[in-house]
Amino acid sequence: DMTRLNLLYIVGLLLVAQSIAIIRVPLHKTRSLRRLMSDNGMSVEELRTLAKTTGSADSTPSSDLPVERLTNFMDAQYYGEISIGTPPQDFTVLFDTGSSNLWVPSVHCSFFDIACWVHRRYNSKKSSTYIKNGTEFSIRYGRGSLSGFISGDTVSVAGMAVSKQQFGEAVKQPGITFAVARFDGVLGMAYPSISVAKVTPVFDSAMEAKLLPQNIFSFYISRDPAAAVGGELILGGTDPQYYTGDLHYVNVTRKAYWQIQMDRVEVGNQLTLCKSGCQAIVDTGTSLIVGPVEEIRALHKAIGALPLLMGEYMIDCKKIPSLPVVSFSIGGKMFNLTGEDYVMKESQMGTSICLSGFMAMDIPPPAGPLWILGDVFIGKYYTVFDRNADRVGFAPAK
Question: How many CA atoms are closer than 13 Å to the CA of 280, on its beta-carbon side?
Answer without folding.
Answer: 28
